[in-house]
Amino acid sequence: METINWFCLKTWKQSSVNTAWCLLGCSIGDFGTIFFFQIYQVDVPILFIMTLAILNGLITSIALETFILCLKHPFLFSLKTALGMSLLSMVSMEIAMNLTDYFYTGTAKLTPSAVALMLMAGFLTPLPYNYWRLKKFNKSCH
């Protein structure tokens, strides 16, 4: 069994940068969805809002990554690379963010303190997995 060195600062830095980019992409769709339902007060179950927020977060993360990669690569290569990102990392990020929001506010609601906690949970949850994946396979989530 291969042992992973969990004390490599270079790998922690790279996995932190990768996780931050993923968090940016996921947050756009996630926060946008929650904000829409918060502003327009549409009467739907919280689980519907959270599920839609997660799906939109995944879509915007893939779209942002595709756009960034298109600056240096052809579109189809960029899209394929973006679709090959770690869904486990993104889904865990999204679930952590939405559970944090729910347990902090009791609903699907964005407040400055809730957003700060959501971003912290969304960053910290997939970070060890992204480190492990980078160290073991030399693969980033991006």
Low-pLDDT runs = none
Structural class: mainly alpha
Strand content bin: under 5%
The SSE string, one letter per element, is HHHHHH
Summarize the structure.
This protein is mainly alpha-helical and 142 residues long. It has helices at residues 9-40, 46-70, 75-83, 87-105, 112-124, 127-137.
Topology overview:
Blueprint: H1 9-40, H2 46-70, H3 75-83, H4 87-105, H5 112-124, H6 127-137
Helix pairs in contact: 1-2, 1-4, 1-5, 1-6, 2-3, 2-4, 4-5
Describe this structure in words.
The chain is mainly alpha-helical and about 140 residues long. It has one domain (about 10-135). It is about 75% helix and about 0% strand. It contains six helices and no strands. Helix 1 (about 10-40) packs across helix 6. It is globular. The chain starts with 8 loop residues before the first helix and ends in a 5-residue tail after the last helix. The model has no long low-confidence stretch (mean pLDDT about 95).
